[in-house]
Design goal:
It is a single chain. This protein has 237 residues and is α/β, with parallel strands linked by helices. Helix 2 packs parallel to helix 5. The chain is globular.
């Protein structure tokens, strides 16, 4: 008598269902060995689907723009802040630095923020910012020099905002700064005059979110159709 397969395992909210091979023998989908090939289809659990809907319901109308990031792992750290604060869309500009695929940074797993974000790649700041401004985004460039609005006193309640950050050493290019609608700087009280890329991103996104919450965060969230489409897209990743 043929033995019955073990109960279906569940991990990360995903239930694995067996598929039978040509010999009609079922095998656990996570087991590959002994010359047997696994046949599996990942089926999200109801709890996981609800998680996708909950996440989509908290995504904001906002974009993070990264220009000429040198180290992909620095970008990966920014992606975590994007996911945490609800910024779904990330635009990367590669003009002087070697391009990399943001979807392939680090280990691609459910705990990797880049799995859950949407990316766009551009060859110039003009191309990227022109598109965002045509879509109604206010582009805010983060800079370390004077003459910029201080982050904590700036009004950051535009319906759509694109936060732009630059290279780890050079910062944003003069072209990107000139094309931006406004410049923001984080006031520094110590001897060090700058913060690293991921820390800057987290501080700015926190402040944008804080001000939006005070103004009524609901008006900055995705609409119903966008939420539904995003939840479906997340479930397929």
């Amino acid at each position: 008598m043929r033995s019955q397969p073990a109960p279906l395992p569940t991990f990360e909210g995903v239930r694995l269902s067996y598929r039978t091979g040509p010999n009609r023998q079922a095998a656990p989908s996570h087991w590959i060995g002994g010359g047997l090939r696994a046949y599996a289809r990942a089926v999200p659990t109801p709890e996981r689907n609800q998680r996708y809907r909950d996440v989509a319901a908290r995504r904001q109308q906002g974009v993070v723009v990264l220009e000429d990031i040198h180290d992909p792992h620095n970008a990966e750290a920014v992606f975590r802040s994007c996911d945490a604060f609800g910024f779904q869309r990330v635009c990367l500009i590669f003009d002087e630095e070697e391009p990399f695929d943001p979807r392939r940074v680090g280990k691609l797993s459910s705990s990797s923020a880049n799995k859950w974000l949407d990316f766009e790649v551009y060859a110039s700041a003009r191309e990227c910012l022109g598109k965002l401004q045509a879509e109604g985004y206010e582009v805010a460039a983060t800079v370390a020099d004077g003459g910029a609005e201080e982050l904590y006193t700036a009004e950051l309640t535009a319906p759509r905002i694109a936060v732009m950050l630059g290279n780890e050493n050079r910062g944003l290019s003069p072209e990107a700064v000139a094309l931006a609608d406004r410049k923001l700087t984080i006031p520094m009280a110590g001897m060090v005059r700058s913060l690293n890329l991921s820390v800057t991103a987290a501080i700015v996104l926190f402040e944008v979110t804080r001000q939006r919450q005070r103004a009524g965060l609901e008006q900055y969230l995705l609409d119903a159709d966008e939420r539904e489409a995003l939840a479906k897209a997340l479930s397929e990743r």
